[in-house]
């Protein structure tokens, strides 16, 4: 729990100590670089390529089924032609003969159409198989890259996992020492900052990382450590450089000691 009746200086010491510990955790996570994002991108690409590959497989099955259906239709048409030709030998008049001739002609057209369709289906199958080979190659290439990236990420994580866990535990302990209202402000500011800095020292008359000057009177107030002062431009909590330098040395020693255990 946070100590009751903390002075402003004690609050500033606590929150800046937390900032320094959290910044060390950020550095560890930065070692992983863009690998987690690269892994996510590769996984998304593989999912997309796999979906495309599955669609091609489905199309190929459908085309093969269509070919089988057309071959069955051709067989039925040939059977019908034989039957009609047989019947022509037993007709009693020209009208019946002509009617059967038309049926034969229709079935022959059905056979021609089926042969044409089968050729089209086979052409599509060959084209899709070529696309499938390329898709399969791309999936394998991306999978190989993903395996390599995952391996690299696992190595980095395994190297830094214990350090991150130790510092995260320390961060949690330090957070409990801070006034709840100040802690909420710290976390809100830190969450909105790209570099994770919620507490910064005044350096050369400006807040750390900024080129916007802080008025001399405000600098005196910051050095006095009598109230929590926020930067008007960035919204960050400000501390004087002397306190920052002292705490930087203390936290550096503390982190080194923690990680050597």
What report would you give on this structure?
With 261 residues, the protein is mainly alpha-helical. It folds into 2 domains: 8-32 and 171-260, Helix Hairpins; 35-158, Helix Hairpins, CATH 1.10.287.1490. The protein has 6 helices and 4 strands, in the order ααααββαββα. It has helices at 8-30, 35-88, 94-175, 180-192, 216-224, 241-260; strands spanning 199-203, 206-207, 229-230, 237-239. It has a 4-stranded mixed beta sheet. β1 (199-203) and β2 (206-207) form a beta hairpin. The longest helix has 82 residues, at 94-175. The mean pLDDT is 91.
What topology emerges from the helices and strands here?
Elements: H1 8-30, H2 35-88, H3 94-175, H4 180-192, E1 199-203, E2 206-207, H5 216-224, E3 229-230, E4 237-239, H6 241-260
Parallel strand pairs: 1-4
Antiparallel strand pairs: 1-2, 3-4
Which short descriptors sum up this protein?
4 strands, 2 domains, 77% helix, 261 residues, mainly alpha, single chain
Give a quick precis of the structure.
This protein has helices at residues 8-30, 35-88, 94-175, 180-192, 216-224, 241-260; strands at residues 199-203, 206-207, 229-230, 237-239.
Helix content: over 70%
Instruction: Please provide the ordered H/E string of secondary-structure elements.
Output: HHHHEEHEEH
How far the N terminus sits from the C terminus, by CA atoms, comes to: 26 Å
Assign the structural class, choosing from mainly alpha, mainly beta, alpha/beta, alpha+beta, or little secondary structure.
mainly alpha
CATH topology category name of the largest domain: Helix Hairpins
Main sheet makeup: 4 strands, mixed
Across the major sheet, the strand order is 2-1-4-3
**Extended strand count:** 4
Low-confidence stretches: none
Number of helices: 6
Total of domains: 2
CATH architecture of the largest domain: Orthogonal Bundle
Radius of gyration: 39 Å
Percent of residues in beta strands: under 5%
CATH top level of the largest domain is Mainly Alpha
Oligomer: single chain
Query: Which geometry do the CA atoms define?
Result: rod-shaped
Mean pLDDT, as a whole number?
91
